């Protein structure tokens, strides 16, 4: 006689069969979805090498080093060559820098075990001479390297400029001679000299494509011509305006194999009123463009307003212009008149005079303009809309701070957003000044 609530089970094996089936399902699902079955734990040490390698590539250097001590398998992955193709040495003095310096023990381990694996290498140093000298010491030890890209980056001056020219040249020579595959080099603000360039091209003439060496006072036009003459694959060159001359442009234009795609020129004034800038003739610019018709001529200006006088008084084939300091209305007017190849214009600051006429003139005459950025300037809403209307959908990049735009009797800021969006063919809003 059964009691109330008592369940009748037909066959004593039924519950066991049900539990077995449930365990089998759990085991099956765990196998299919890569999850551990109930009652088991994940063996992280048995993960495939390629999975661990992928994880390591997302870790910071410190975390990667810590992870390598988890087990033997992870330590093996830590030393796989693919993990060391790209590396940035951070060198700083703790008392004077916010940078976290790469640990000396790790640096020595890299030099000992991975120097021949390094391909994309950069050195980020603070402003101290000690850090720059440490970078040179590391370069001097890369005798088995096969570097393709090398960048020397100083977060502030003077850094590398305070290193003796002999020490710097000796360190670079090790890399230039042993790599024989350098394609991209960034050595701005360093004591690079002509003899170093000769060593570079003698060993890497077939591979060098990009050379950035702005603010290298020991380099002469002869050094530049040495690079252009021997590096037939050179596509991008960055230098300081002080080294640019009519003779250099004409020489670059006479080399049949030279086909520059980018010429970057930094125009920098360290001491206002103490530097006199020379003029480059229109004929010299024209020769370069005729020789390399697709070349982008990029100019970065860090001058004071009274130092712009020699620039853009006649037609100049510049394609990209960046003004890091205030530039006058008169200078912007010259750009509208004499820069027909202009593609991109960025103005950090101007003053408190509306730039309506200047922008409209730029829109009329610079038919290739596709990108514009304005910082601390003033433009009326009506003038800005007229500028956008004339440029139309070819303006693929338009970055204007909201504070730049002055509402007028024709348009408010809300109306401006709708009108500009209509002419661009896409939704557009002015940039907002961050509040933090």
Automatic annotation (TrEMBL):
Pathway it works in: Protein modification; protein ubiquitination
Compartments where found: Cytoplasm; Nucleus
Database matches in InterPro entries: F-box-like_dom_sf, F-box_dom, LRR_dom_sf
Region: Disordered, residue numbers: 1-25
Record-level GO cellular component terms: mitochondrion; nucleus
GO biological process: regulation of circadian rhythm; rhythmic process
Main location: cytoplasm
Keywords for the protein's UniProt record, in alphabetical order: Biological rhythms, Cytoplasm, Leucine-rich repeat, Nucleus, Repeat, Ubl conjugation pathway
Signal peptide (residue range): none
KW Nucleus (keyword) present: yes
Matching CDD domains: F-box_FBXL21, FBXL3_LRR
Domain called F-box: residue spans: 41-87
Record-given protein name: FXL21 protein
Organism: Sclerurus mexicanus
Upper classification of the organism: Eukaryota, Metazoa, Chordata, Craniata, Vertebrata
């Amino acid at each position: 006689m059964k009691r109330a609530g008592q369940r009748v089970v037909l066959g004593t094996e039924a519950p066991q069969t049900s539990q077995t089936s449930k365990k089998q399902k759990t085991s099956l699902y765990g196998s299919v979805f890569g999850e551990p079955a109930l009652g088991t734990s994940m063996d992280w040490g048995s993960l495939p090498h390629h999975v661990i390698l992928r994880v390591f590539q997302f870790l910071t250097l410190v975390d990667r080093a810590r992870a390598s001590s988890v087990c033997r398998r992870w330590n093996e992955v830590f030393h796989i060559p693919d993990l060391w193709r790209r590396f940035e040495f951070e060198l700083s003095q703790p008392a004077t820098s916010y940078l976290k310096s790469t640990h000396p023990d790790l640096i020595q381990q890299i030099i000992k075990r991975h120097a021949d694996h390094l391909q994309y290498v950069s050195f980020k140093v603070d402003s101290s001479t000690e850090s720059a000298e440490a970078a040179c010491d590391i370069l001097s030890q890369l005798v088995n390297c096969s570097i393709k890209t090398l960048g020397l980056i100083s977060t502030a001056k003077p850094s590398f400029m305070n290193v003796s020219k002999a020490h710097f040249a000796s360190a670079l020579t090790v890399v230039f001679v042993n790599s024989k595959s350098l394609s991209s080099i960034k050595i701005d603000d360093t004591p690079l000299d002509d003899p170093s360039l000769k060593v570079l091209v003698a060993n890497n003439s077939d591979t060098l494509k990009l050379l950035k060496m702005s603010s290298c006072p020991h380099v002469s036009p002869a050094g530049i011509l040495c690079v252009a003459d021997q590096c037939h694959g050179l596509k991008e060159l960055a230098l300081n305006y002080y080294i640019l001359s009519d003779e250099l442009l004409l020489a670059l234009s006479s080399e049949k194999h030279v086909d520059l795609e980018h010429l970057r020129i930094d125009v920098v004034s360290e001491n206002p009123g103490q530097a006199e800038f020379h003029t480059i003739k229109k004929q010299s610019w024209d020769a370069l463009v005729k020789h390399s018709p697709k070349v982008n001529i990029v100019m970065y200006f860090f001058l004071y307003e009274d130092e712009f006088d020699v620039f853009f008084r006649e037609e100049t084939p510049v394609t990209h212009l960046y003004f890091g300091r205030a530039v006058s209305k008169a200078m912007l007017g010259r750009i509208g008149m004499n820069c027909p190849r202009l593609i991109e214009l960025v103005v950090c600051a101007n003053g408190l005079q509306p730039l309506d006429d200047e922008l409209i003139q730029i829109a009329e005459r610079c038919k290739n303009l596709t990108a514009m950025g304005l910082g601390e300037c003033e433009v009326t809403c009506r003038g800005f809309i007229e500028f956008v209307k004339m440029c139309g959908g070819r303006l693929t990049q338009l970055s204007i701070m909201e504070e730049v735009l002055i509402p007028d009797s024709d348009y408010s800021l809300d109306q401006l957003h709708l009108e500009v969006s209509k002419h661009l063919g896409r939704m557009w809003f002015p940039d907002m000044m961050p509040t933090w």
